[in-house]
Structure formats: C-alpha cells, structure tokens
Amino acid sequence: MNTLDAMEPRLLRSFIAVGEELHFGRAAARLHISQPPLSVQIRTLEDRLGLRLFERDRRHVALTEAGAFLLERARRLLADGERAALEAARIARGEGGVLAVGYTPTATYEVLPRCLRSFRSRRPDVRLELVELRSRLQIEALHEGRIEIGFACGPLNEVGLVEHTLAEDHFVAALPCRHALTAKSRLRLRDLDGEKCIAVRPDVEPEWALAANDALVRGRVHLDVVQETDTKVAMLGLVAAGLGLAIASASMRRLARDGVVYREISDLRVRVPLVGLVAPNTSPRAQALLDIATTRPASALVQRRVR
Fold first, then answer.
1. Which one, of 268, 138, 277, lies nearest residue 211 by Cα?
2. What is the tens place of the pLDDT at every residue in 98-135?
3. Over the stretch 54-102, which tens digit does the pLDDT of each residue have?
4. Residue of 59, 96, 207, 219 with fewest CB within 10 Å of its CB?
C-alpha cells in the first residue's frame, strides 16, 4: 500500500482526535466510538506508515516527533479535502467554476449587460469568460464545448441545439445628421429608394441581413450600397461621416453616436430575434444565466429545439 492510500480520512480523523486529546478514552467519546476500535485504527495507521505516532503506556499518551509533524499536516489535509468537496458540490450546482459565454456585439446593446449584472449578483463565485463571436460561429463553439451559452442573432435553426428568443428587434434608418430625410419624424420605405447606403457585410450576421434585404425587395426599394463594413460600429462611423444612410437594428440607438439620427420606418414591420443558444443538457451555471435572460412574460418567450 502506498503512503497516499494510508492517509484515508477515517484514520486521519481518529489520529487527530487522539493527538489533540492525548487520551484514548476522551478521543473515543469525541468520535462516538468505543476505545478498542480506536486503538485498532491508530495501530493500522502506524503500520501503514511504518512509524510510531504515539509514545504510550497505561497512564500517559504523547506524540512522537513524527506524530507532532503529522498532526498539523493531517488537519490541513482534512480541511483541504472538505473544502474541495464543498467547492465541487457548488460547481455541480452551478455556483462556481468558469462560464464561457459567446456573444454577438448586438447582444451588448441591451440584453447582455442586464443579464450579466443580475448573474453576478446571484452567482458571484462563477467566473465569466466572455467571447465575442459572430452568431454562426457560436454554433461551432457550442458543439466543440468552447462556450456553454451563446447570445446570437437568430433564428439559427441548428440541429441539436436549443434556441430561446430573448428579445425582438426591428429595423430603423440611421441617417447622417444633415441628411434631408431627418426633416421627417417618420419615414416610409419609398423614402429610402435610390439613397446611398452603408451596410455591414451580409456574411457577418446573415439572418438579420437577409431579413432586411427581403423587406426592401418586397417594398421594391433599391439602395445604392457605396461601402460595406465588417462591424456595425464601423457602419455608424461612416454614416456619421455623411457617406450614406444605413438600415440598423433599433437597439443600436443605445450607442448614441454623434452625427447619427435615427428614424422609424413605419411600413418596415420585420421583427428579428436575439436568441440564447445552449445544448439540450447544458450546465447548471449556463442554465442559471439562461433563466435570467428569459425572465420575461411567458407569452413573450419562445423555445425551439431543432431535431
């Protein structure tokens, strides 16, 4: 038997009790056992370690030098083991560990900050690892286990993942502050026909790009795309510079970019979902964050698992 096997918790607890009491009778009472089994346990530990832990006769019990050294270490070993067991149990309940969260920048305008603030207050010992990923890339990251939950522009309809609608957004016109259309309090689709436009590349968030494009096609509106960008923030920067207008999600108004004015488009009624994406049997900590994200009236929530 190796030394590690000898240091089983039951034997260490008995050794600590005798080492602290220096009396087998009192130690046995403390452990709620009789004295003979306690003596057997101490002898077993000594035999396994191959050394004497106590000097004892009929009237006195004293620790040997080796026993005194082991007493302090045994206390630490048991305390560390108990702490490890408690921490493991907390992680199993979703109250500890690391939660990797994938998110599209669109989620940072409203939904994600609210959810993370609440999550931190409820699960302060869970360390959050935030990973910015385009929505489609979150699917691969979830399947590979690199993230446990994603906040994405949907719908994604990915086989084997569960998709929860967290919020719905709509499209507005983002205009340079000196654009002629800013004179109107609300716009109609036909007002945009032929205008110069800044657009995020369609492959960045294809679901939302397709929804906006389909709406423009149905309205027989043509936009003159003069520049594509990799990000929505860059798109707004070019709008502010006066290079053209943009079709933006309404939540982007939270960015309050100088030089950009937003107008509702009364006949553009497309709603696009921001979704939470998880595996069917997700971890307790990911489920806790998802529960916070979906804390809305039941009639407003949608859950969909694609098979």
1. 268
2. 999 999 999 999 899 999 999 999 999 999 999 999 99
3. 998 878 899 999 999 999 999 998 888 888 777 777 777 767 789 999 9
4. 59
N residues, the chain: 307
Q: Could you give phi then psi for residue 84, rounded to 5 degrees?
A: -65, -40
Go through the domains of the chain in sequence order and give each one's CATH number.
3-92 (1.10.10.10), 100-164+279-305 (3.40.190.10), 167-271 (3.40.190.10)
H-helix segments, the chain: 3-6, 9-21, 24-31, 35-49, 65-92, 111-122, 135-144, 206-218, 232-240, 284-293
What residues contact residue 294 under an 8 Å CB cut-off, 6+ apart?
164, 166, 276, 301
Q: What span, in angstroms and rounded, lies between the C-alpha atoms of 126 and 297? A: 27
Coil vs helix vs strand at 229: strand
